[in-house]
Protein 1
Amino acid sequence: MSDFDNKVKELEAAVRNIPDFPKPGIQFKDITPILKDPGLFHLSVELLATPFFGEEIDAVVGIDARGFIFASGVALKLNTGFVPIRKAGKLPYFTLEESYDLEYGSNTIAIHQDALEKGSRVVLVDDLLATGGTAVAAIKLLQSLGVEVMGVSFLIELGFLNARMKFPETGEIRSLINYVSE
Ligand code: AMP
């Protein structure tokens, strides 16, 4: 097994599965054990940032709320700014909004209209890819701003939900931990 695979295994071993949260049938992937361990937290951010070392990236965009934790770490690693995509009603200035279905419920997300310069090159980061609704809505917001999405990175992908099929034309989609079955 490669060094990379071993590191990912370390992260995967720390993810805690909580059955039936927040409602019956959902296997919730709890990442707080990674966050509380300085070595694992650092490793997760390092591995998410690595594909972009040496690339020209203007900002790292994170999705409310757990995405913020990893995206801000990646932004610091890449020496870029951080831009939040938040749940609707949370950003104080003029926003663009996009609605989508979630694995549990539905949601609307928003970005500040002036968050990014047209033509800027960004990386989108979130904690987990499930149905893809959130990430696809986020990419739509970024594309509406005329931004180039250079990559979309997740700590965890629920690969068995086949969300990648729903993605619009965008930069490479990466995940560190991939669950191929439930
Ligand atoms: P989706 O739009 O279905 O891809 O859902 C993605 C968002 O919902 C992520 O930002 C996750 O934080 C959260 N989420 C969805 N399903 C799960 C799950 N099984 N475990 C933990 N978080 C989840």
Protein 2
Amino acid sequence: MKLARNFYRPLAIGAPEPYRELPVRLERMIHFVPPHIEKVRAKVPDLARDVDVVLGNLEDAIPLDAKEAAREGFIALAKATDFGQTGLWTRINALNSPWVLDDLTRIVAEVGNKLDVVMAPKIEGPWDIHYLDQLLAQLEAKHQVCKPILIHAILETAEGVKNVEAIAAASPRMHGMSLGPADLAASRAMKTTRVGGGHPDYKVVADPVEGQPRAIAQQDLWHYTIAKMVDACAANGLKAFYGPFGDFSDAEACEAQFRNAFLLGCAGAWTLHPSQIGIAKKVYSPDVAEVKFAKRILEAMPDGSGAVMLDGKMQDDATWKQAKVIVDLARIVAAKDPELAKAYDL
Ligand code: GLV
Ligand code: MG
């Protein structure tokens, strides 16, 4: 293991100092765009006002004969758009693909100073992060990039899940992680063809009671992995995200999946279709009543110690911390969303 003092040293002479704390950003949804399509690129300036993160996808779902066009299209949209407070991310190709080296060298050379985060697919262990960390530092130094480009790993292989804690701790360049349920299902030989969400056959059946139909409760296929990812991220000061929800026609199930992830500690989710942007905003912005109650807890316990009763519910140091998580998030949301700022009274 590296010495703590070396952990925070730049990995190339002239590369920017790694962050010690993640920059505070609103990332309720990471909105995917296919950058090789000109019509899509034309809509990016409007999109950037609506979403928290615009991600140019270069990996899966981009046809093989459009890989170069997607990379160059991403560079073009990055140059042409003023992103303001909205994040600019790209999902590069996998580390074992023939495209990834050019993805990174071209993009950092052309728009390294605008790029916030590189999303890296199929991360198996800390060795993948170390490779990217070193390469990004060399490219940052070469192209005079002023702030570190962060790495966001997709957790989508059985080996990655096994190594999730080491991945989270691999570099100060780590931003966070997303669950990739489609590739993960394939890697684990799970018997589902769905992209995220539940499965009607994954269920618990109650004991039989004569004359009554047996009660059946569908269970959550992703609970274990999301919880494991959230713990690895939270322990290392990173953010956890739910990934894709593939059934665009089922808004209700998408909302339930996003909400389960939110309640377990995730900060946001991917949106692959415009209809999912509103769902992510609704789910990942804290609830108005919850924010108002959390504000009352903070007001009732100004220094966060002792115990008070509010509406018959006990509050102490621990609920004060829970309230602070909610109010801090509400403040970030309020800065971007005037309507919610009013509703939260912040
Ligand atoms: C996302 O990349 C997934 O495989 O689910
Ligand atoms: Mg995948």
